[in-house]
Amino acid sequence: MYNKLQYISQGNTIEKQLYNIQQALDAGCDWIQMRFKNQSAKDTFALAEAVKFLCEEYLANFIVNDDLHLAELISADGVHLGLTDMKIEEARTILGNTKIIGGTANTFEDIQNHIKNGADYIGLGPFRFTDTKGKLSPILGLSGYFEILQKMKKNNITIPVFAIGGITVKDVNPLMETGIYGIAVSGLITESDEKEKLIQQLNEKLYANIIV
Ligand SMILES: Cc1ncc(COP(=O)(O)OP(=O)(O)O)c(N)n1
Ligand SMILES: Cc1nc(C(=O)O)sc1CCOP(=O)(O)O
Ligand SMILES: [Mg+2]
């Protein structure tokens, strides 16, 4: 069972990334996706090794954005691949069945393809406009999630779906009502001055209907 909250890291330097990731871990986040764009291979590797070490210390899941070979090299828990990254089918062949592979989707058809190709979870977005990522796919809004999740239900499709893109605390309840599994957030956690309180609030909402 996956955690319902994934933190997507931010920062243009190794130091800034490590600071943000450590803060998220300290505040109780237990799933980190390292997203470090347009950096040298040397720096990306150095950061990945340090994040792997940190996540082991905090018993947090650690996946790498985009770079399957890096994920393999440092034995991360998995990788997140977008629609223009390495094909999920190929990634599955390389990583085997024990690693997590997430795939980005913007439509019901994307989800069908990812399932066919062996994805473990879906990052469905964007929910709304966000500065965190350039070249966004069409914005889904609540109605987009509702339609796609209804289609999944009708077609008996079950795979954990994480909403992503500009999500704030007040979006969590309505998003969960559409049938998503969890959320992936970056700016919300990075920019918060009260991270522990925020993560507690998010988890309360995300796990509200789970009976232990
Ligand atoms: C959980 C999750 N969902 C979607 C994305 C976006 O991936 P991608 O489309 O490859 O865009 P970049 O993050 O690489 O800019 C994600 N990273 N995580
Ligand atoms: C990395 C990413 N992927 C998206 C997609 O729609 O595929 S939106 C996004 C940015 C998520 O960061 P924030 O929580 O700061 O908006
Ligand atoms: Mg990508």
UniProtKB/TrEMBL annotation:
InterPro entries: Aldolase_TIM, ThiamineP_synth_sf, ThiamineP_synth_TenI, TMP_synthase. The lineage of its organism: Bacteria, Pseudomonadati, Bacteroidota, Flavobacteriia, Flavobacteriales. One of its GO terms (cellular component) is cytoplasm. It comes from the Bacteria. Belongs to the thiamine-phosphate synthase family. This is Thiamine-phosphate synthase. It catalyses: 2-[(2R,5Z)-2-carboxy-4-methylthiazol-5(2H)-ylidene]ethyl phosphate + 4-amino-2-methyl-5-(diphosphooxymethyl)pyrimidine + 2 H(+) = thiamine phosphate + CO2 + diphosphate; 4-methyl-5-(2-phosphooxyethyl)-thiazole + 4-amino-2-methyl-5-(diphosphooxymethyl)pyrimidine + H(+) = thiamine phosphate + diphosphate; 2-(2-carboxy-4-methylthiazol-5-yl)ethyl phosphate + 4-amino-2-methyl-5-(diphosphooxymethyl)pyrimidine + 2 H(+) = thiamine phosphate + CO2 + diphosphate. Keywords: Magnesium, Metal-binding, Thiamine biosynthesis, Transferase. Transmembrane segments: none annotated. Binds 1 Mg(2+) ion per subunit. Its cofactor is Mg(2+). Its EC number is 2.5.1.3.
